[in-house]
Design a protein that fits this description.
About 45% of the residues lie in helices and about 15% in strands.
């Protein structure tokens, strides 16, 4: 296998940059550039790199001989000054010495190929780099530490036990399985189905934790949408005045709500208008509502509901929404429950912050992100989710065939399929084409 090189820190200027080499010639290339005969393993060495007689940079160089390295191969990490020009010169020098440029995720792929990690852990590295919140970091770190693999292992062991039992029964076709073994097989299959289903059900929360959610704040003009927006992002981002129609365009900001990355969008107030600019803003409001995972419909709780409020309640009745009664700090405030039946509301004051913790909890509940709060393992990867759903279908088919006393062959076929599907999550039964597609999404240098 060739020796590859790549910049492992972000591109651009900085105090330091880290260049990584991996492969059979990694240490030899480093020795040629430093013009030394050897390096002490796993100890950072201050040295100067040269291309012929030209000094490239003074660096800290660390060698990790195989197999005790990140990739399982000889690895060299070079910490140099963070000038793009210096980085380019050092990488060019390694290429002239026999290295090749690494592809996306190639270091991680080599670690996978050499048994240092499994595929689920490799994908967790990508998720850890992309994590936007503390909760997303914790979930990715748990998967990187092998928690998903450890969760799946008992399921696979139970399936192997059932498969061995049924395969053995094929050798004695004249005898039926004893009643205790029949009950055992049914219990095992039901247990595995329940466990696989529980993992797949966590994907709703896991997807939002990884990808984030879009929330649109909407309502009539002057109900306090922009004030609520500012309160939720804890910054005076939107202009707030007493003049209706101040917000003419959508305004978005990213925020962390209970560990879920959320993009909040403040929108123009919904009303009939002849103002062309405001009309364009209202059109964008409707688009933002259509694209949102959740709509916060804000109403002015200090005034009686008008026809426009009632129309907005009807228009958003079939969307995922939260009805927010704002201005609870005013003496004229009244709950919507007294005005409209069967509509749950959250009473808040965007000005004082009253009710905002309740609103945060309601947002998380609507986004199905309870798993992010209670610390349970979540499925955050769409590939894992699809494989779990497919495995569950195969397991349910196997259980149905077993209960109907079909032949062992008909039960074994979906069981083998389910075992293969679960193995694809950790890479035990994954094809090269799928691996290439997965690692194409990694950054170069990782």
């Amino acid at each position: 296998m060739s020796t590859v090189v790549a910049l492992s820190t972000p591109r651009g200027r900085g105090a330091l940059a880290v260049i990584r080499l991996s492969g059979p010639e990694a240490i030899a290339i480093a020795q040629r550039l430093a013009q030394v005969d050897s390096f002490e393993s796993r100890r950072a060495t201050l040295t100067k790199l040269r291309a012929g007689d030209e000094e490239l940079d003074q660096v800290l160089l660390t060698c990790f001989p195989a197999p005790h390295s990140l990739t399982g191969e000889d690895v060299v990490e070079i910490s140099c000054h963070g000038s793009p020009a210096i980085v380019r010169r050092i990488i060019d020098a390694t290429l002239e010495s026999g290295a090749a440029l690494a592809g996306p995720g190639e270091f991680t792929l080599r670690a996978l190929s050499n048994g240092k990690i499994n595929l689920a852990q490799a994908e967790a590295i990508r998720d850890l780099i992309a994590a936007q919140t503390d909760a997303a970091v914790k979930q990715a770190a748990r998967q990187l530490n092998g928690e998903l693999s450890k969760t799946l292992d008992p399921f696979k062991e139970k399936l192997v036990h059932v498969i061995v039992l049924l395969e053995s029964a094929l050798e004695f076709v004249e005898d039926d399985l004893p009643a205790p073994q029949v009950n055992q097989v049914e219990e095992i299959l039901s247990s595995v189905i329940s466990g696989v289903d529980g993992l797949s059900q966590s994907y709703g929360a896991g997807r939002l934790l990884q990808d984030g959610a879009r929330i649109a704040i909407t309502g009539r003009p002057n109900v306090g949408k922009s004030s609520l927006f500012n309160s939720l992002i804890r910054s005076e981002r939107a202009i707030v005045t007493d003049v209706p129609g101040t917000t003419r365009d959508t305004l978005s900001e990213a925020v962390d709500i209970g560990g879920v990355p959320v993009v909040l969008t403040d929108t123009a107030g919904l009303r009939e208008t002849s103002d062309n600019v405001e009309t364009l803003g209202i059109e964008r409001t409707h688009r933002a509502m259509g694209d949102a995972d959740l709509v916060l419909l804000v109403l002015d709780g200090s005034n009686q509901l008008g026809p426009e409020d009632e129309e907005l309640l009807k228009q958003t009745a079939d969307t995922r929404r939260l009805v927010v009664m704002n201005k609870s700090d005013l003496p004229t405030f009244q709950s919507l429950a007294r005005c409209v039946a069967d509509v749950e509301t959250i009473n808040v004051s965007a000005r004082s912050g009253e009710g905002l913790p309740v609103l945060h909890s309601a947002i998380l509940a609507k986004l199905n992100s309870a798993g992010a709060e209670n610390g349970s393992l979540l499925i955050t990867n769409a590939r894992h989710y699809d494989l779990l759903c497919s495995a569950k279908r195969e397991l349910e088919l196997a259980r149905a065939c077993f209960r109907d006393r079909h032949s062992e062959e008909l039960v074994l076929a979906p069981l083998h399929n389910a075992l293969k599907l679960l193995g694809q999550i950790t890479g035990e039964t994954t094809t090269e084409d799928i691996l290439s597609e997965i690692f194409a999404t990694f950054c170069i240098g990782k």
